[in-house]
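User: Hello! I'm new to structural biology and keep hearing that structure can be predicted from sequence alone. Could you demonstrate with D-xylose 1-dehydrogenase (NADP(+), D-xylono-1,5-lactone-forming)? Please show me the input and the output so I can see what each looks like.

Assistant: Of course. The first part below is the input, the amino acid sequence of D-xylose 1-dehydrogenase (NADP(+), D-xylono-1,5-lactone-forming). The second part is the output, the predicted structure written as tokens.
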Amino acid sequence: MAEIPTCRWGIVATGLISSWFVADLVLERDNPKARHVIQAIGSSSAQKGKDFAAKYCPNASPTIYGSYAEIYADPEVDCVYVGTPMSFHKKNCLDAIAAGKNVLCEKAFTINAKEAREVFDAAKKKGVYVAEAMWLRHRPMVTKFRQLLFDNNAIGNVALATSNFALPLDIPGLPATSRYKDPELGAGTLLDIGIYPLTWLILSLDSNGPQSPEDPKVIATQTHSSGVEATTSVILHYPSTGRQGVLTSTFMTEQIRGTVCRVQGSEGYIDVIGEKPSHPEYFVVYRKQSEGKFSSEKFEFPHKDQGFLFEADNTAVDIAAKKHESAIMPWKESIRVMELMDEIRRQGGTVYSQDKE
């Protein structure tokens, strides 16, 4: 086997998303694309870091730090994984970049497009790798999905895509300290869960890909509860093709397992099935055979991890190749997605303090 790259990770924050990421990276697997080492863990206290390591990477021996700054200063760390709430992403990224570290930062990448540009400008000046951890885009499932849609025209001319994400939360009943209730932490459905249906629509309707995408027209509305955006409804319209997409995100009901994205075309449709839009399991292509009848073909992509290894592997390979950005989620695409969400929030009336800075 040819030598594979090794990436030594510094984990910033010990919340849920970081636990998923680390648990995936330490799994044993055959024919890995890269080797991952949990080199260091930073938390608000050393004890929290120790407890996190004991639970999620018990066979590793990471250095435990009671601050994030120590992660950035550790010469043994190749790449920093930022798993903090999104309102801290800009600062965490800029601090890591200033220390000369490569960065993989969770979605939403920042609060708005302005912050994203600041981060990428700093990365360009420093000459380091920075990427948004939109794990959905790195999945082999998505590669095959887009190949069938746009290379093979499996359902003819794509016309319509729909995707919805629901997470039941009693916003008024939450404590004031909850990140779901604090606008200063980017509270609201759009940046938290709505980014997934938005991503599915982009993947389903934009045949050009992230290198030369088409900007759709946005029509959006939002409702608020206790000062927090609680529902978002969006129509995307692509002028060059007439393709349209509808997405919703809400805290007012629960997600029903099943179709997380449906794409309809002139000769059939595709249903992506899963627990929620962030966790797709497989998809089925339905091809028109005769009036009212369709053939079906199921595409499965089994893996024992949650799906973070795909983005981690690609990050390790990119860094080893001395790249500064991901071809799957390049800087301009992260900025574009933030711009789309900025426009959705503008129309919906959701304003964060970061928008005024």
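User: So the tokens describe the shape?

Assistant: Right, they're a compact way of writing down the 3D structure. Reading them back into a model, for example: The first strand starts at residue 6 and ends at 12.
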